[in-house]
Design goal:
- The chain has one domain.
- Helices cover 85% and strands 0% of the residues.
- It has 14 helices and no strands.
- The radius of gyration is 21 Å and the shape is globular.
- The model has no long low-confidence stretch (mean pLDDT 82).
Length: 413
């Protein structure tokens, strides 16, 4: 089965990405404790807000359209247009969120007001956009082994910078090293891409601005994820820190970050293969229906076994990835894991809506999901305290999954 073969080819890069993330967690847990986990999660969430539309909108539209273009001139033009559009969106998003959240790290004692730090932050996000766009080219071309090598290289760069920051000490230096790793990784991939593909690039077409319309629907869908996903997560975490403190929030976030790691693995392996596969078959209903069924037959049993094993190893994983002080965070796991299982199944069905460019439907279900999450937190908070966030996560994806099954019922029958 092509899906399994292609997924296996991405495993090296995914493993490297997960190891890099584990290394990041371990550094902040060992040297800065639960408050450090709260901080790095908050910083990564802020960065993901800035890159959400370029990475989840522009890049997804790029993959969707790349394989249908007939020649290298048009493909180069789409690549150039995608980058410049991403850069414009980044500047607008950065300016807006700088006004909305000017003091978003002050609770941690991190200085972000200097011009130097702001420029470093912006350069890091540009580096992330370059990384994602160049890796998207490999996904669209179905060069999954090269995609894995790229991820491996980026993970090594991040670990090198973080390891070096420990020599200087302090959480501020660790955050700055994390940002520098994204800048360096982006520049390194650009250099490799120019060396490897210079004869296939029509350089004059990189300045094209003629391909915005095919990307517009994907941008609106990514905007909905930004508003109803990443921004909601950012605000809920800030609320938790303010109400319960950085340490308890860090315990909850330690489980969320563990969740982020295997969801990242899932998206990297399955998303990088499944979405291009769906995009190729989008105009062949019967072939698409067969492909989706085959994927679900493989994934659902694997996911069920995975989460049962994960829960059984819960305390050991918390000691391994963090420290013994995080063992009490296991109480969040049942709700988090049930929600994550349903979320993973939901992501596959949401990919189908995205590939079909059902923009209004996609935005509506994102708004529905966010509304359920906030309502559940409001209802649960007085009775369950900080546990209400994990419980709300579970209920949110239970209803989200059921809605997506209904919307894709013709493909699942």
């Amino acid at each position: 089965m092509g899906f399994i073969k292609d997924s296996l080819e991405t495993s090296l890069g995914v493993a490297a990405k997960v190891i890099g993330s584990l290394f990041l967690n371990k550094v902040f847990a060992l040297f800065f404790g639960a408050a450090g986990i709260s901080l790095i999660t908050h910083v990564q969430n802020y960065l993901s807000i800035l890159v959400q539309i370029p990475m989840d909108g522009v890049n997804r539209g790029f993959i969707r359209n790349f394989s249908h273009l007939p020649d290298r001139e048009q493909k180069t033009a789409l690549l150039g247009n995608s980058f410049w559009l991403s850069l414009l969106i980044l500047l607008l998003t950065w300016g807006l969120y700088a006004v909305l959240f000017p003091n978003w790290t002050e609770v941690f004692g991190i200085q972000i007001h200097s011009l130097g730090f702001q420029l470093l932050l912006l350069a890091a996000v540009v580096g992330m956009i370059l990384q994602a766009l160049l890796l998207s080219v490999l996904q669209a071309r179905q060069q999954f082994m090269r995609h894995s090598y790229g991820q491996l290289l980026l993970a090594l760069v991040q670990m090198l910078f973080l390891g070096g920051s420990l020599y200087f000490g302090g959480v501020q230096k660790a955050i700055e090293a994390f940002l520098w790793s994204h800048i360096s990784g982006g520049l390194l991939l650009v250099f490799i891409a120019v060396v490897q593909y210079r004869k296939q690039i029509v350089w004059s077409k990189l300045w094209s601005v003629n391909y915005s319309r095919p990307l517009s629907g994907f941008i609106w869908m990514a905007l909905s994820v930004l508003l109803f996903g990443k921004t909601i997560d950012f605000l809920v975490r800030a609320f938790s820190i303010d109400r319960f403190g950085a340490e308890p929030t860090g315990l909850w976030q330690s489980v969320v970050r563990l969740s982020d790691m295997y969801i990242m693995l899932f998206i990297s392996v399955v998303g990088s293969v499944f979405y291009p596969g769906v995009s190729r078959l989008i105009f062949d209903f019967e072939a698409l229906k067969k492909y989706i069924r085959e994927v679900f037959k493989v994934l659902i049993p694997v996911l069920l076994v995975f989460f049962l094993v994960l829960y059984g190893m819960g305390e050991w994983l918390l000691r391994l990835f963090y420290t013994r002080d995080f063992i009490s965070a296991k109480v969040f796991m049942p709700y988090q894991f049930i929600g994550d299982f349903l979320a993973m199944c939901s992501f596959l069905l949401a990919y189908v809506l995205s590939a079909q460019a059902r923009t209004i439907t996609f935005i509506a279900i994102q708004a529905f999901s966010a509304g359920i999450y906030m309502l559940c937190i409001y209802v649960f908070l007085s009775e369950w305290g900080i546990m209400s966030f994990a419980m709300a996560h579970m209920v949110r994806y239970m209803l989200f999954f059921l809605l997506l099954v209904y919307l894709n019922r013709k493909l699942l029958n």
